[in-house]
Amino acid sequence: MNDHHDPRLDGLTLEEKAALLSGRSGWDTAAIDHAGIPSIVLTDGPHGLRLHNPQASGFSFTDSLPATCFPTAAALGSSWDPDLLTAVGEALGRESRTAGVSVLLGPGVNIKRSPLCGRNFEYLSEDPVVSGVLGAALVAGVQSTGVGASVKHFAANNQETDRMTVSAEVDERTLREIYLAGFERVVKTAYPATIMAAYNKVNGVHAAQNPWLLTEILRKEWGFDGLVVSDWGAVLDPVAAVAAGLDLEMPATGGLSAAALVAAVRDGRLAESALDLAAGRLLHLIERTAGRGEPNPVADVDQHHVLARRAAAESAVLLKNDDAILPLNTGAGTIAVLGEFARTPRYQGAGSSRVNAIRVDSALDALTEAAGDRIRFAAGFTLTGDEGETLIAEAVAVAGAADVAVVFLGLPEDVESEGFDRDRIDLPEAQIKLLEAVSEVTSEIVVVLANGGIVQTTGWDHLAKAILEGWLNGQAGGGAIADLLLGVVNPSGRLAETIPLRLEHNPAHLNFPGSDGTVRYGERLYVGYRYYDTKRIDVAYPFGHGLSYTTFAYSGLAVVAEGEGQDTVVRVSVEVTNTGTVAGKEVVQIYVGDIACTVDRPVRELKAFAKVDLAAGESTVVEVALDARDLSYYSIAAGTWVVEPGDFEIAVGASSRDLRLTEVVSVQAPPVAAKLTLDSSVSTWLAHPEGGPLLQRIGAGRVSALSDPVVLRMVEEIPLNRLIAMSGGRLASPELDAFLTRS
Ligand code: BGC
Hints:
Elements: H1 14-19, E1 42-44, H2 73-79, H3 82-98, E2 103-105, E3 108-111, E4 123-125, H4 128-143, E5 148-154, E6 167-169, H5 172-179, H6 181-190, E7 194-197, E8 201-202, E9 205-206, H7 211-221, E10 227-230, H8 238-244, H9 256-266, H10 272-289, H11 301-315, E11 317-321, E12 335-338, H12 340-343, H13 363-371, E13 375-378, H14 389-400, E14 404-410, H15 429-439, E15 445-450, E16 466-469, H16 477-485, E17 499-500, E18 518-520, H17 529-535, E19 539-541, E20 552-562, E21 569-578, E22 584-594, E23 605-614, E24 619-627, H18 628-631, E25 633-635, E26 640-642, E27 646-655, E28 658-667, H19 682-687, H20 691-699, H21 709-715, H22 720-726, H23 734-742
Parallel strand pairs: 1-2, 2-5, 3-4, 5-7, 6-8, 6-18, 7-10, 12-13, 12-14, 14-15, 15-16
Antiparallel strand pairs: 8-9, 11-16, 17-19, 20-21, 21-24, 22-23, 22-27, 25-26, 27-28
The structure holds beta-D-glucopyranose.
């Protein structure tokens, strides 16, 4: 929307326009009856509707109206299945519309920078392509019902410590390539109705009051035409926020913000046109979300429960499966089901995303329903984490008498939540003790995990033959786990976040969560696997990893580059065959590495992926077209994305560490010419297509250093102005001056 006169605002006073720009209550906008402007409702959250219960007294995260609790983003991100996220989005949209909600506050596409972030369960991945593709798919689903999505938290909101005050100090290249890229993809491909500005500062400026983020990048560069809403309570200075490009401050401030805006317009500190622009965007949002989508939306919550079960099953990651201990479909033998989480599932995270689930299935009930007489249960530990020798002894007795032990472990609710970060990533000691005790009586052990952020497997991994990472998987997760354990469903989730051998290996470790109000993203682009793979550090389970009950073979990789520079297209095709005996899904991952680049880049980066469903023996060809952006880095010098000429490695595989086929492709592009100044080094000058020959010409016969290779090697890091001085001015030349003025 341009900065022009908006006739829809003609009948409104300045006070009324200002009133539109902050909430009427915690969850809705102001109405202006005489102008026919209705109030609209915005509510959480990413994996289920958290609609404030009108009967509730006061503020509460838990007292909301019942809604389907879908798997959290940590789970959905591990599905690597955009169609699934669209289906979940549609269901969320239907429940929203049925409840009269116009904007659903999600998805969260922040990067999982450190496993310690308390909100990682609400985020999709450590990788911007996974976050962006899946985030866009969810937005498309929600918005197909006429409900608007709110992509959050823009931007660099990667921790909870000091979340309302901390300044994320991130260099621009890292922001562009890692932390903004997911948002950019969602904005450009799914046209979200709203973006939520984060609490934190980015390089010193509050995200909700940050003109560079909200206006320069989001609107001018990416073409976002929706509304920017603040995170709840993120605005400190409403005038600065509107001037920066924020449209709606939430929640209500009792009229304080409107009064501040009116005063600022009256005394000339804020242009009325800025306020009009924001008010116009709110009207646009109201129009955009009013009555579109399905004419009479019906939320069939039974069907949504079925979808939630499918989503949970698609999201679980089979980390290991020695001796093919899973699936437990032998038809005979007893199964010891151990761990309180089997009976009392941990299926969602705490904070604003908390849903009052319509119903909750436990794995114990689902397993009992499927294999009743074979199931023996013992709690093994309590949810409060208290030590329980008796509970462990009971579990050991049950395990000793069974053919296999399935041990349900995970994180207690009070260690991960919105609002604070974790300080460790290991499982509670009582649970590890249980596992150790059980391993004394049986080696047939399957561990099922329930956690939002990753947990360290080092130290106990060897005690389990199989590990099934179930995540916080929503109200139907228990049934999904039973389906996976019994082989009714073949696991197909893949890690969207690396599990390091230990926390200290994480690249952000020495810079998390910062101090003195600042967190420095010192690891730069090297987030997650970009770091582990470039540094060749062993990990417990790599990014993209996940096993299946079948096997897949890759063949016939073909890579062809067409066009050049910004028009380059690299066509990749590869055949994938299900070589096992059961149907299954493979996630084909395509990584790109720039072999000869002039700047430092991660050794490989995921650029595309496809989840394919294959019957036993079936093959399919996966085809992907990579564009120039997929080959580029963000050049600070050029102020834009740059694709360099030369060889790129295209690797196709089942994880960032399980690359099955690679091809090198040569890309045509103009050489990257540095901007030359007198301060540029001699080597930079010599490498420049015009500056190099010029310097050679001027230097010939005047400065021997330029023609003697041995001396040249020694002086090439010297800035040209120093060489000119040291040459007693012999290198100074009007030709050089003219060149510098020109370029
Ligand atoms: C959270 C947002 C949420 C909002 C409304 C904030 O504290 O950061 O994610 O949407 O509250 O509940």
